[in-house]
Structure formats: C-alpha cells, structure tokens
Design a protein that fits this description.
Blueprint (H helix, E strand, L loop, with lengths): L24 H20 L5 H16 L1 E2 L2 E2 H16 L4 E3 L24 E6 L5 E7 L4 E9 L8 H18 L6 E13 L2 H10 L6 H14 L3 E13 L4 H6 L3 H15 L1 H6 L3 E5 L2 H12 L3 H12 L20 E4 L4 E3 L2 E10 L21 E11 L1 H25 L5 H18 L4 E12 L5 H14 L3 E4 L4 H8 L15
Antiparallel strand pairs: 1-2, 3-10, 4-5, 5-6, 6-8, 6-9, 7-8, 7-13, 10-11, 11-12, 12-14, 12-15, 13-14
Length: about 500
C-alpha cells in the first residue's frame, strides 16, 4: 500500500476589479455626487439645506458601498433596469420552429437564443478521416472544438496515482500559460443526469448471447429492472478555444479564413493528446457537428436525453438502419425559452444557475468538488470550470498590481491606526506565495466555476436548489444565484461551448 500523503490545494485569489478600487463606474459617480451634496451646505452657507443634503449624501454612499448578497446597490439597480427593459421589449422571450429565420436558399440554420445566437457551427476535417464540429464566435473571433472525455476518477485510486493525475492536469494547464498562446480558454463541463437504464437495456439486448443460461438472463433482467430507474449517468466534455487574433499568422499560413483557423485548431488539439493522457484523461471522441448539436439539444430539452442516448447506442451497431448518431444542427436549439428574474425556462424544463463566488479558504483535497455532482433522481446538475491561461509577462504585471494595491492598503490602515485583520494578513501571504510560485515557473490562470440545476417539474425546483446549496456548502464553496441574468448563466453552466469570462476591468 502506498504511504504517500494526499496533496492539498489552495491559494485561490479573488480577482479585484473596478473603476476605482472596488467601485464600479456608477459607484464612483455616486460617491462624487455624495461629496457634492455633503459640501453643499458649506458653499451655500445655509444650514437649513443640510437637512436635505446630508441625508441625500448618506443615501448615495449607501447605494455605492452597501452590499446585498455580495452585490452593491448600484449593481442591483443596473440588473433590475436591464431585466425590466428586456421584459418590456419581449427580449426575454425566444421562439423558434416556424418562427426561425431561413437563409436565401430556403435552408434553416441553427437557431439559438440570447448570446448564443452569434455562434455559428462549422464543419472541418479532423485529420483522421472524420468531421469535427467547431463553434465560431464572430464577435470574439474565436473557434471552439469540443470533445467527450472519460477518466478513471480519483476517489477510488491510491494516493500516489491520484497525485500523479492531478499533477498531470496541472502540467497541461501550465503548458498553455505561454506568451501569446493561441489557446485562450479551456472549459471542463460535467453533467450528472438521471437515467432510467434504457440505453443499458438496449445494449444488453443486442449483446446477450442466445446460448446464455436462462437463470443468468433472468437475474440480469431483475437487476436492471430494480437498479435502472435509480441510476445516474455522467457526461464530461472538454472545450478548447482558439483566438484567431493571436493565431493570425498561423491561420494565414494554413490558408486563411475559417478554413485556416479550423486547421490550426485541429493541429493544436492533436498536440494535446499526450498531455491529456498524462492527466489520466481519455478523449472518447471529438464531437462532429451532429454531436455538438446533440449536446445543445439535450441541455435545452432534458426529456430528449434518454431517446437520443438509446439511439446513439443503437447506431454503434453496424446493422443499424435508422437515423444517424446525433442531431441535425438546425434542430439543436430550443422551441421556446423565457428568461425570468431568478430562473430560466426552456422547452419543458426550468434551470437555475449559480456562480461560485468563493472557493475554500483552507487547503482541500483534489476531490473537494465531488459533492456538487452528487446523483439526484429528481434533477440534473451541470458544472463548468473555465480556465483562461495568462502569459508570463501579463501574469507578472497582474500580480505586481495586486501586490501594490495590498501594500498601499496596509500602509493606509497603519496610518489611520486600524489593526490588520487575520484575513488581510492571510491574503497578503497567499499573494506573496503565488508570486514566488510564478517566478519559479508556475503558470497563472483566471478561473471561474458555474453550476446549474435543471428540473422538469417546477414544484421540485426549490427543493433541488436547496440540495445544491447544501452540497456546495459541504464542499466549502460560496455560491450565488445569478439574479437577472439566468440566460447568460445557462449558456456557460449548462453548455460546453467554450463561452467564458468577461474582460477584466482595470482599476485605478
């Protein structure tokens, strides 16, 4: 038995962004307005005006600095106004089917709601005789390929193998943290789905030998009848996003345009085979256009999951004469969606998305995220981890900026006589350790995590949400419901399409 101690992980730093300090642009305006109101009685030499000006100044400061559920009052105002405008103009509703637009030749392209409408599904050769589905985002000028991966897991292996696999994954991510790297985003997406065992029974029926003993066949049938309805299945996807802006010279050398971009992306993903294998990840398949469409379709319509899984299993039989594996791209989108303040309705399901706002403060084991994907018979869960590698030069600048902010804050507290809290002292120590690790050759990444829970019965939604929040608390995570932007949260949390973090707002 291995005597190796399990490795512990920690040191995550919250990204600090704002127009000035932690204030947004609107918050800065509110603070300036509060100062103007506070000085108004002095300039007017009218103390009676102070009865109006001082309460108004306090109200504006409260709107700028007051926080509810982690958001300031001005951020809540922006979310509420944006949502009400969308409701008033019916932009929170989406209808496809007969209402979907058609091209000049009468064909119907993939029709998706919200920010997904900008995406185009392209087809490119994968270099091995097959076809690869690539999601093109013309706004961000990025190209994303998606693969289904399998892995042996961490919970049931010995500590030495567990540490080796995590180190392999860390080495893979570190290899992407290079100057002007063309891969700008890596997304890991996993779904935990209720399964009635239909696909398993279909596979068993086709592979059961006619000469099998009747007692063995009967025992197998009883086992699947009892365990099948309570079973769950997990799907894991890895999305790789290429920035056309960074790879413009390589794309030009490969023929230019979308064809050149697809060729460069295929070359990059083929080079990832060895590092992924070192991390214990086995690429089952790079998704074709029909495979990508199926992933999108099953996210919007969970009830289609079982039928499509059974058909995919049947399509592996060489004698299969039915529809091919996957879904036609023009049928990938939902029939209808509605964005509500706290949830997202799509086809026959309801989804609530959460953002992980706080990772564990203490060091944790590599399996600390396991509770989030705990099997549930009444709901499906989706977890997305988005990694954005940062080049060495930019990482050095970012960490130096963070260090300067913290040092300035510590000096200001010392001058005003405020004692430094233990949290602030720990943050400073973590930042220094992170800078030392970067100087030693480690990579720096931006990371965010989103999790979604989906039900087909609205009465079970709040119960499923409460269970998810309890499991997140067990994992040491702080999750926050994405109020007023559930449609955007769904596009990242429930779909492995490589959509990621917004650009960081640089503070002063």
């Amino acid at each position: 038995m291995s005597q190796t101690e399990p490795a512990l992980y920690g040191g995550w730093q919250s990204e600090r962004s704002g127009f000035m300090g932690n204030l947004s642009g609107l918050g800065f305006v509110l603070v300036v307005a509060a100062l103007i109101f506070a000085m108004l009685p002095i300039y007017t030499r009218s103390w009676s005006s102070a009865l109006f000006a001082l309460p108004m100044a306090l109200l504006l400061l409260l709107l700028a600095y007051g926080r509810v559920l982690g958001l300031s009052a001005d951020e809540w105002i922006v979310l509420a106004v944006r949502h009400q405008i969308a409701v008033a103009t019916n932009r929170n509703l989406f209808f496809s089917g007969l209402f979907a637009p058609r091209t000049a030749d009468g064909s119907q392209p993939m029709d998706l709601p919200g920010r997904l409408a900008r995406l185009h599904l392209l087809e490119a050769p994968d270099g091995l005789g097959g076809q690869l589905g690539i999601m093109h985002n013309p706004v961000d000028n990025t190209y994303t390929a998606i693969c289904r991966v399998s892995f042996p897991g961490l919970a049931l292996v010995d500590t030495e193998k567990q540490n080796a696999r995590v180190k392999g994954w860390a080495a893979f991510l570190r290899g992407l943290c290079k100057e002007d790297g063309v891969i700008t985003r890596i997304s890991v997406h996993q779904r935990s789905l209720p399964d009635d065992g239909a696909a398993l029974r279909s596979w068993t029926d086709r592979h059961t030998s006619p000469d099998a003993p009747p007692a063995a066949v009967q025992a197998l049938d009883e086992l699947m009848a009892g365990a099948g309805p309570a079973a769950t299945t997990r799907e894991t996807y890895l999305s790789v996003t290429l920035s056309a802006a960074r790879a413009r010279l390589m794309i030009k050398g490969a023929g230019g345009g979308q064809i050149g971009a697809a060729a460069v992306l295929v070359r990059e993903i083929n080079a990832m085979a060895s590092p992924l294998s070192s991390a214990g990840l086995q690429v089952t398949e790079w998704l074709s256009p029909r495979g990508v469409a199926q992933v999108i379709r099953t996210a919007f319509d969970p009830e289609a999951q079982l039928a499509l899984s059974a058909r995919s299993t049947a399509a592996e039989d060489p004698t299969w004469q039915g529809a091919p594996k996957g879904v036609a791209p023009e049928l990938a989108g939902p029939a209808a969606t509605e964005t509500i303040w706290g949830l997202y309705r799509h086809d026959g399901a309801w989804t609530v998305s959460y953002q992980v706002r706080g990772l564990p403060q203490s060091e944790v084991y590599a399996t600390f995220l396991q509770p989030l994907l705990r099997p549930r018979s009444n709901a499906r869960r989706s977890l997305t981890l988005v990694y954005e590698p940062i080049g060495p030069a930019k990482a050095r600048q970012e960490l130096a900026r963070e260090k300067t902010k913290r040092d300035a804050a510590r000096k200001l507290r010392a001058k005003t006589g405020r004692a430094e809290s233990e949290d602030e002292r720990r943050e400073a120590m973590t930042a220094r350790a992170q800078d030392v690790a970067r100087a030693s050759g480690h990579g720096v990444l931006r990371l965010t995590a989103l999790v979604a829970v989906t039900v087909t019965d609205l009465e079970e939604l709040e119960t499923a949400c409460a269970e998810l929040q309890a499991d997140a608390s067990s994992a040491g995570l702080e999750v926050r419901r994405i109020w007023g932007a559930q449609d955007d949260g769904f596009t990242i949390a429930a779909l492995p399409l490589g959509l990621g973090l917004p650009d960081r707002r640089v503070g002063i």
